[in-house]
């Protein structure tokens, strides 16, 4: 019986220990035991249970073999509750990179433009002169240089010369104040010699000089002078006696000569108008031509020169090139006549100087212009200015002679720039020297007198210059070249 009880006790003890191990394993599997926080192993638990059981004395022969040591259960670490991932946000779309735009090219290399270019529709207007038929018989005509003339008197002399069989008169335009502009043409030859005067209002002597020369030629032709008759068979002398009739009258005779009282110069006094160079709209016609350098400043050293930015008596180039009625008339006249011209003389005052050639044009052209200036100098003893001093893009640009010389060189009208340009050039590059020539016309600017005659009011200066400087002989020599 004792042995059975001991055996029962032994089996019970083993059973209890087995149950404890099973319970512990189950708890560990379900994460209910945290070994890190409690630091109790499965073996410790078994020992604690054994200590609470009753001790049973056994004989040496019946002692139970020691319970084998169990491997400790692996430590189980409970992972912390994971931090929820942030809700992904859409990355902003990258802004499109602006395309790299090349810097805007500057016209003519960045020169300073003072005036807008001439509209091509105006430049392309056809030359359509109106022939003036005059009835009557020719009588010898002359011009008195010891007095001043009104434009109406000059007009009357032009029409009287038109009675000659060797003369044709054409109306080529109308001024801002509705005066007529005429081309007086003498001879029937194909080779033309051009003369222009009265572009600047106060230079009142030059229209009288060229008109007196025209009367002399016509009188000789009417008297059958052999030299003149032969000359006029091969040549045609084309003269615009006064380009600026409104200014011509106002500079000598004052404010009362302006019919349209809304015109710019109508607000000025007689003494102020004696210094007038512009037309009735306040535009200097000899700065208003659409030449390559017209209405611009090229050279850096001239960029700070003050120009009139609005109509004035002297130096306004015009808001737009080539649109003044007088300028339009002359552009058409030049385009018609320059291809057949041998010479072109643009008369101005004051200074007793002959300007010949342009710095930016060919040496061939400049040499021919210098040769013409030397012919004139031989009679007048005027000084000759070389082409090197005719700087383009200065405040003297946009003149009759700029336009004429560039046209003769073969420049063509560019619609975007509104001016003449070298034919092979682009509009972004400034051509500083052009080397070609298209036509054979020689051009000079012929500056008479040393005094400002409208200021002195002394008409006798006209006569002394004519005789003392042999102007008639100089003009005739030019026509015979």
Could you describe the 3D structure shown?
With 481 residues, the protein is of the alpha/beta class. It has 15 helices and 13 strands. The strands form 3 sheets. A 9-stranded mixed beta sheet has the order 2-3-4-6-5-8-13-9-10, sandwiched between helices. A hairpin with a 4-residue loop joins β11 and β12. α5 runs parallel beside α6. The radius of gyration is 54 Å and the shape is elongated.
What's the layout of helices and strands?
Elements: H1 2-29, H2 35-38, H3 42-52, E1 112-113, H4 120-123, E2 130-132, H5 151-161, E3 167-174, E4 180-186, E5 191-196, H6 205-222, H7 226-234, E6 235-240, H8 245-253, H9 270-273, E7 296-297, H10 325-337, E8 341-349, E9 353-356, H11 363-380, E10 383-385, H12 400-409, E11 412-414, E12 419-421, E13 442-448, H13 453-456, H14 460-468, H15 471-479
Parallel strand pairs: 5-6, 5-8, 8-13, 9-10
Antiparallel strand pairs: 1-7, 2-3, 3-4, 4-6, 9-13, 11-12
Task: Please sum up the structure shown.
This protein is an alpha/beta fold. The chain contains 15 helices and 13 strands.
Cα distance spanning the termini: 169 Å
Radius of gyration (CA) equals: 54 Å
| SS-based class | alpha/beta
The H-and-E topology, N to C, reads as HHHEHEHEEEHHEHHEHEEHEHEEEHHH
Strand content: 5-15%
Sequence stretches where pLDDT stays below 50 over 5 or more residues:
1-5, 26-82
Can you count the helices? 15
Helical fraction: 25-40%
